[in-house]
Amino acid sequence: MKVTVLTGGVGGAKLVLGLTSLLPADRITAIVNTGDDCVHLGLPVSPDIDTLLYTLAGRFDQERGWGRTGETWSFMAALRELGGPGWFNLGDGDLALHVLRLAAFARGDSLSEVTAFFARAFGLAATILPMSDDRVATMIETDEGRLNFQEYFVGRKCAPTLRGVSFAGAEFARPGPGVLDAIAGADRILVAPSNPWLSVDPILAVPGLRDALAAAPAPVIAVSPLIAGRAVKGPTAKLMAELGLPLSNASIANHYAGLIDGLLIDSGDDAEGISIPVARTATLMRSLDDRKRVAGAALDLAGAVAT
Amino acid sequence: MKVTVLTGGVGGAKLVLGLTSLLPADRITAIVNTGDDCVHLGLPVSPDIDTLLYTLAGRFDQERGWGRTGETWSFMAALRELGGPGWFNLGDGDLALHVLRLAAFARGDSLSEVTAFFARAFGLAATILPMSDDRVATMIETDEGRLNFQEYFVGRKCAPTLRGVSFAGAEFARPGPGVLDAIAGADRILVAPSNPWLSVDPILAVPGLRDALAAAPAPVIAVSPLIAGRAVKGPTAKLMAELGLPLSNASIANHYAGLIDGLLIDSGDDAEGISIPVARTATLMRSLDDRKRVAGAALDLAGAVAT
To answer: C or N terminus of chain B, fewer CB within 10 Å?
Structure first.
């Protein structure tokens, strides 16, 4: 069985990690959001790809919630002393990925190629595909003006009121190598409990991707990022309120209408107003067992809607 | 009194540091070799400029002989784990300079501008001028083929037999902003005890610089890098032997013929075959007092030949 997951950052990486406990990793393909990617101080940073790499490699710092375990911070200390920008933290070890990516780009390698190189170097058997090798930048329209994703998310900690989201460059972007095949050829497709507007929509904004998902023969199951009307992490609930959307799983189902065949929601939540099949499990993913359970429940729902 | 120093790496930085103990730092200008500069993994590295910055800022790791004090190495560990090149060490704190330089270049700043920015950030009053903002690459012809400076010096630890040295791009390079004025307007000019062929010649290879030095109204004093026919550090003696040159201060004086008005040599050395004024002091610079003494002796010799 081949499983393809559309995923953003931390929550999505947990789901993919759960999947690796349930089936051989070489059957798993992650299509990863790159709308958060930025060039910081000239270094190309791919936060969601790196979060997935670190998570699958057992290097993700779960306590901090980002970056790698055992990290040191000499670079940032030296940078701040020199008057460099201190708002975007880059750990010393983490820099190795950004610098190797810079060097790879300089010799003409694509993001897909350098991502595959990193996955191999970390000994990962899962396939990690950037949604596109072309530049797509998630831009946040706020009451304080237009911000790029990192300015909004890291720099302003999502404080400005969000008015809308757009994906600069998306109209010219092509799906990354293997992305359309991973959707068309999958036996199961999952949409991770990542932020639908900020982390999954950039993937769907790449021309051809939404249509491929809608046309996919495999059942498509989304895992809701909401629990009891709140987001586990990040700005999902605040964003939904600012967009005037009810904080309900029905809003999630509506957002993915025409794309998904089922929605996995938290055990305690109701399915009011949802017209597609729903399954429930405790969707909070703290332990590896939690991740396995959520991944398993999503696959079970996919199996149920497929029959 | 305004003093200008032509300098390469570690030995030159020690001399400049000695000068700062003898006169106000804002009277000192260092014209620094950039022939060792390289782009490693996409990062622009300027070893001699950074050695001077770290030395004057009290951050140079004297025990290791390069890089900065209190350095950590998480970046290199992560880089090696990912299969990146491990032969060229970049410390975590040191990376801040290379990354800020990358960002500065990306927004169109010159090497002179970013060097001045670093000097200010470190609180340095001395003027640090790259010999050129244009790319000049010191290339070593060896019995194993042509190597760039870092491949020869760091990668091969100067093991291949040297056949010659050239400076790629030098014919198109312009002196950095302020460089010709610092030579023409100096009251004293010193040539640091850096390797004449590898560290000072690249400076002299920048069109206009050699002529400016020859025409300078100020006395020009070189400090010999040899002590008892040996080099304190680095490949000077090996290089001289490979070029078929006697390991004598006369070889140094000949090399700078027409440019220098006096040569400072070690107390124990003879001045056989040298036709310009010579002074002696213990030229080994271990302590700050040593650096002051050598700088003072060089300035004294300059004063003597000026009268």
So the answer is: C
